[in-house]
Task: inverse folding
């Protein structure tokens, strides 16, 4: 693979590389690691990329790599730039004939995501999106249990993603904080765009349902912020199920508290990202079951997502690596013209669009005095829009 | 004490008696246990109440007891009847000069609660309300920590009370279920009236804040129900803090999941009723503290609410008994014309009114297409009301 | 009931009374609360005991109570004196024809316990012993699961009772500490006598097995102590199962950590006193089951030991009250000449003897350079004994 | 690096490679993956190793690699063969001038480990041993806390490593089980050799203490086994602290339950491998602290062992990768003739010897009727030894 962004000092690039490295199936062969040539040089050296495959801009990389023999050139590009570049880089890569694995969010606006869908389709290439949390084995297991009907009809979903790192004005100075709170760089939302969207994705991915209606309360908690740092969204799903989505970056004491509960007519399940190897299945009239990764029977997708025996915890990087491993398999299947296992596909363009729609719908709904709003997939009227 | 309701077979009456018995400070001396004379008889026998102090109606009980010498007659009455009788029994008792400890909810409507306030004031008697959960030692500790300023400015409260026992149509046949789902007996709300109101009370009690605005989503989940069996309420408190209140009776697998998280600018706390002897204090930049009942220093109100050394779990009945013990102390203070310790008072008429207002406000707000509604303390326009 | 010991200021007496009060079935009618006449007076007043039934010595109490008509006199005596008096008070009570409920340990020495057995048998009276922890509902459930064969053949038991309150020399000044570390008042052991014996009792009670062999390491941790403050005992049970019993009073940070794991050929179970309403059933090849008090089906003995619906935690006092309630039922059955339900009997003279034997066997084994020792029920050679 | 063993289908080889891959610092350049030439071929292909660097025996590999220019040849060898080959392969590698990273146990016997020490010293090369669990960040933190004196004087250590996968005769058929229970392939111990030794290593590593005396009970639980499948060891450490080490492979329901508690005069700590990102610090008189990876200040060694922000769980593979990363740094320091940070060194030859001594001492002590035995570092009399 090649990489755009992720030069020395970048956090998420390092995680993507660790994830890609883990299984020894993917090799980083080239990169346009930074807009800063010195950083490009140093990053390439650090990563053992030969000088002739370290590029200073992504367009050159795509052009030059495309000239290499198929066996040598990168097979896909991993995009780990700042958010506003995700779309143009993905567009350029796809148009140059490369598969794309993009960091989340897919684009800067919903309209870009809609355009991207056309571009993906025209290119005939594969597009993957690192909604990391869906890579966890027990998320696969949860989705399988719902699909099997073990929960009965889904009646209610409570999903939360809470953090505390933006709880005070003092927290705003950090590199991560400053761009996330800046509309010009982060887009229309901070909290919902950064983490709320993961919660929404998790709820839809596990339940197999889609949000159709929402009521949002995204007011920022810390004075003087232009973007939301906390929010709650009331939901309705397409089967009529109710939902509550809580998200916060001002919840002091929360680390990375992503958790979900899905209630059905027969049973419920509960999963927490911070203890990811456990899935709870609960009933009204018999003991709860603590389903543990590697203990007893599990879904095929779960088993394929595990690397160690029961009781050897797997974590965030392994979940991330699962997304990469799935994508690598999709590429092999693509090359072999075989269909991919639907339960083992990386999140893709559908999730890209629904994610951007979630962000824009919550922001729009939050500014409205009206309670309920349909979940739109286009033409969302945002607060600053001129009518 | 005397008791109205709670005859043989009644659940909550037995709990009230256990709570009153626990410390050996309160003696049950008379009762009007049932509207059924045979049950009265059997209950009195079971409880060792002499026949002449077992009454078949509460008015007679108040009249007859009032005639007894002060040292013999009951000092207060515990009301554990069905909800619609709480108000008339309390009114009669207060007007006969007896202190009242009432099961929750205080009344059937907000208007009755407002009337009751006048009656309490006129009577000069004490009025207590068993919002049981505030009797837990660690709830006292939590309130003390907030009052001390350890959390800084409160920014957000997430409170939940979820159960699963009304998750299906089949669950509706039970005695408890049938009256709770019947507007004629339960009032305007099932879930919010039964348990959501405890969550609201807990949030206000610990935080010392008051709800001033809300947005409610109380639609019933199970088909054919006239009253809510699940709901979420978005909140604003009088200091501007945001809140989310989740409550459900259809959350399969939940037992009695009352839990609260209060986030402040400096720290947050978390408490769960099902593990009541633990209180979490959490920070952004240092280890979380697991505060345990009986370990190290605690607030005076906490210490006074504990009966055993650290590690000997105390539970629901002890919390309930604390409410009774507090009320017994209030009566002693009253008799001695001494002021009562404000941190050690049973919930009273203020909580009665705010509780009934919470119920009616959420129901009214839920029926409105408008998002936010002020939290009113009178003249709430309910759906069925004729304008 | 009558009470010997437990005057004002005594800890365990108050717990016994709360336990006896809880269900309103047992009334305290007389007492010899203290060897101090002033304390007797004040205690009687505090407890609403008429002056003529407040006695200053236990012999008088037994004599005088025996003279009262059957309907008036106490039906049993609760013994909550310091340990060395348990035996003489029990003996006197039994010989006067009163049933006895004794605080633990039953006696000061194994020989006394053996004598006591004869006395109980001769008296024809009932004898109960407050091994409190066996009163927990989930301990009943655990025993039932083992008896049902759900675990298969028991292969290993790990039981622990750890506390930290005697971790330093400074802790020795307290009233509780000073007598427990004094051989003249505590007997041959501190840690094993006070709490290790509860662990042994719990293991035997749940498993239905008996210890037949042991290896002990009871050396005190804090310098200068004559009695053990920490110990580990390796065990063999009568079916060949292996065991490990850990007990400590110097385990800083432990509150009252009594927990047990019982492994069988088919499944294992785990219970922790500090979260007593949960019992774990675990398997090799399927999800663990979290069995919760009040959820789904349970053993009859479990159901009879519960007072509240699922999710309303019950604790130490309720467990203690269960022992009293069981004993009250045994007395009623005795009066009715009916057999008592064996799963609902309070611990008795058998547990008294095995408990004292456990203490003396571990002390003797600990002083021996030899690894294994048979578990003897008489004639144990203690270190100070003259041969 | 080069690898000996770990061909297609081998479990632990894959884990070593994932661990080595994770940070992109270590490249697998050659291997003698199997004694089976076909497996060698297929493994090399699977791992993208050129045919000329895929060797069919380790001696050839060492000879050939040594001939390559320094910049091309492997820098160290990772040994992931069956146990009995660890010693001869390590010896050959060291004598050929290659650093060695060996899977655990270091050798087949203590005598081999003692020999190996000489060989390491003579070679001037580095020797690392994958006692994986010491690679966890919170194990580093725990060791740092003890070294800082936060616990005061260590008084007691309870360490456990329990699994359930060998609980029944039926479990013996698997590939892993059959060799572990065979003295010819596993050595003198199954349970202690496989996992008990990790527990001992963890206790010594965190506490900085050394076992000096022990009493062991290793009898197998399942009939017909020649080697232990369960055992308990009573310990004394060189500062006088007491210890208990529990280990089992027949504990049905246990996954990989490695946990440790270290009690000191001032505080205690607790860590569990199955929730590895949490470390508990507990006190007698103030709230317990839940120390979480990435929250607040931590030791330098902890910080260097983390890859993600707080709340993104890291697990077993990351711990394993830390051992590799430490070893890679040791090699760089070696090449630069710089001293390595002592808190960041991979376990080495000292741990190799103490580990083998632990295994042989426990087996010897278990066969003795005498309780206590000194912990010997040579000349241990094993049961089968001819005197």
Result:
């Amino acid at each position: 693979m090649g990489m755009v962004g992720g030069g020395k000092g970048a956090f998420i690039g390092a995680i993507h590389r660790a994830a890609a490295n883990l299984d020894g199936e993917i090799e980083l062969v080239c990169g346009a690691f930074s807009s800063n040539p010195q950083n490009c040089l140093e990053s390439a050296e650090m990563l053992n990329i030969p000088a002739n495959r370290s590029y200073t801009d992504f367009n050159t990389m795509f052009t030059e790599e495309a000239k290499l023999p198929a066996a040598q050139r990168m097979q896909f590009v991993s995009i780990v730039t700042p958010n506003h570049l995700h779309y143009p880089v993905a567009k350029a890569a796809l148009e140059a004939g490369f598969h794309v694995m993009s960091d989340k969010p897919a684009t800067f606006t919903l309209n870009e995501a809609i355009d991207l869908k056309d571009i993906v389709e025209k290119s005939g290439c594969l597009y993957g999106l690192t909604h990391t949390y869906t890579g966890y084995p027990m998320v696969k297991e949860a989705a399988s249990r719902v699909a099997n009907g073990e929960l009965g009809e889904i009646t209610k979903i409570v999903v939360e993603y809470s953090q505390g790192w933006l709880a005070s004005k003092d927290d705003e100075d950090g590199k991560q904080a400053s761009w996330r709170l800046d509309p010009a760089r982060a887009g229309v939302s901070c909290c919902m765009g950064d983490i709320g969207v993961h919660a929404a994705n998790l709820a839809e991915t596990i339940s197999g349902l889609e949000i159709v209606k929402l009521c949002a309360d995204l007011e920022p908690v810390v004075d003087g912020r232009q973007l939301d740092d906390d929010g709650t969204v009331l939901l309705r799903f397409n089967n009529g199920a109710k939902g509550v989505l809580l998200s916060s970056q001002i919840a002091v004491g929360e680390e990375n508290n992503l958790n979900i509960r899905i209630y059905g007519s027969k049973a419920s399940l509960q999963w927490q990202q911070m203890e990811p190897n456990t899935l709870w299945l609960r009933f009204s009239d018999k003991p709860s079951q603590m389903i543990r990764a590697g203990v007893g029977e599990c879904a095929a997708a779960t088993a394929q997502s595990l690397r160690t025996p029961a009781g050897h915890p797997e974590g965030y990087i392994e979940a991330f690596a699962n997304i990469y491993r799935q994508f690598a398999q999709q590429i092999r299947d693509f090359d072999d013209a075989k269909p991919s296992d639907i339960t083992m596909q990386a999140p893709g363009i559908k999730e890209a669009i629904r994610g951007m729609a979630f962000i824009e719908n919550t922001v729009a709904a939050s500014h409205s005095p009206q309670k309920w709003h349909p979940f739109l997939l286009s033409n969302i009227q945002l607060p600053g829009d001129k009518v």
Remarks:
- Chain B has twelve helices and 14 strands.
- Residues 316-335 of chain B form the longest helix (20 residues).
